[in-house]
Description:
Blueprint: E1 9-14, H1 18-29, E2 32-37, E3 47-52, E4 58-64, E5 79-83, H2 90-98, E6 102-104, H3 109-114, E7 115-119, E8 125-129
Parallel strand pairs: 1-4, 5-8
Antiparallel strand pairs: 2-3, 3-4, 6-7, 7-8
Amino acid sequence: MPVNGQSHIRIARPSRDLAVAERFWVDGLGLKVVYRAEGGDAPGEHELLMVGWPDASWHLELVHEAAAPVQPRPTEEDLLVVYVDGEVPEELLARLEEHGGKRVQSPNPYWNEWGVTVEDPDGYGLVLCTRAWSNA
């Protein structure tokens, strides 16, 4: 299979606490658990949580290794942007906040004008953009 626009994408990140992250991404945003692997406490063994929408061509992989945890180090440009194509529902924002998210101002004025930024429990930005995606 060639690498092209139909290739599936996995976005991998470390997480401090997979249970907390799952509440945000699944109960808050509405993603589904795609895969889960339990890990032990020995070096090299890790827990893994993959979340996404079943019909999407991408998913988010969150990893935690208890014996040697990697601390998330997000920057202001580490964003996952979801194009909503309309107003961001207040009930969605409330649900994200109830499940560990924090609404923040983006340092990039574009995202403040065209969306809402919510910081996930690991400090990464989720932008809910009011615009539709267009690659033109």
